[in-house]
Amino acid sequence: MPTSSEAEENLRVIRSLMEKATIYRAVSAPTALAAGIAALLVAAPPIRAIFDHWGVDSSFHLRWLAALLLTLLVNAGLILREARRRGDPLISPGMRAAFRALLPPFVCGGIFFSVFAADKAPGYLAMFYGLGLLATGHFAPGSIVWLGWSFLLAGLVVFLVDLSGQLAPVATPDLAMISTFGGFHFVYATCTWPRKASATTNSGPS
Amino acid sequence: MFDFDKLDKIIHEKGRLGIMTLLATRPSWSFQDLKAELEMSDGNLVTHLRTLHDNGYVAVTKEMRDRPQTSYALTVKGRKSFQEYLTILEQIVKAGRA
Description:
The complex is a heterodimer. Chain A is an all-alpha fold.
C-alpha cells in the first residue's frame, strides 16, 4: 500500500501533466512571425505606394486591418494543419475557451480602433490586445502572459504619452504600431520558436 | 475504511500513470505526441502501451494519412479504472491526514 506522501506525489504528477496537456497557446510562434512581417509590410512606403497605385485607400486603419486579417489568415491555416495532423476536430475545447476569453477585449479593441483617429488607435489596440491575451492566462503558457503584459503596458504608455500631447513629436502612429504589434511579435516568435520538430503542446499551431 | 488493495497495479507505475493521465485529457493521442510529452524512449513507450492495451485500458487505431500514424485512446474500462485509481489515491491522502 502506498504511503500518504506517495499518493500525494502521484496526484501532483497527474495534476501537473493534465495542466500541461491542456495548455492552449492562442498565438503560436509562426503566427507571431507572420504578424511581425505583416506589420513591416503594411507600414512600408513601397506597399503604401502600391495601395495608392491601385486606387485603394491606404489610410492607417485600412492598412493595419489588412495586417490583422493577414495574421488571422495565417493563424487559421496553421490551426487547420495542426488539427489535421492530430486528427482532432478543428474547433477544439482549447480553442473554444480561448475564443470565449479573447472575444470581449477584442470586440472592445476593434470598436476603439475603428472609432478613434490614427494617433489614438495604437495605444487602444495594444491595451485591448494585451488584455485579451491576459484573459487566456489561466490556460496559456507563461510566454503568452508575458506578451499580454508587454502589450498592455506599452498601450498604457502610448496612451498616457499621447494624453500629455508628447506622442506626435516622438512617434508616428505607424511607428507605434511597428514597435508594438510588429516588434513584440518578433521578439515573441524568436523566444518561443520550437527548438525541436517534435516539441508540441495541446494548442494552436506551434 | 477503504480497501487499499484495490489500487490498480497496472496504472500504479510511473510511466503508465503518465500515459493514462494524458489519454484522459483528449479523445486520442498520436504516438509521437505521447512520446514528446512524456519524454520516453520508443521502446519504453511501446512496452507500456502494449501492457495497457493487453489489459483493455487503451484502444489502438492505425491510420494512413500522409504517412502511417498510430493513435491511442482510453477505452471505457480504462477511463473507469483511471477514475477509480484517482479516488483511491485521494482516500489514501485523506487517511494520512486523519
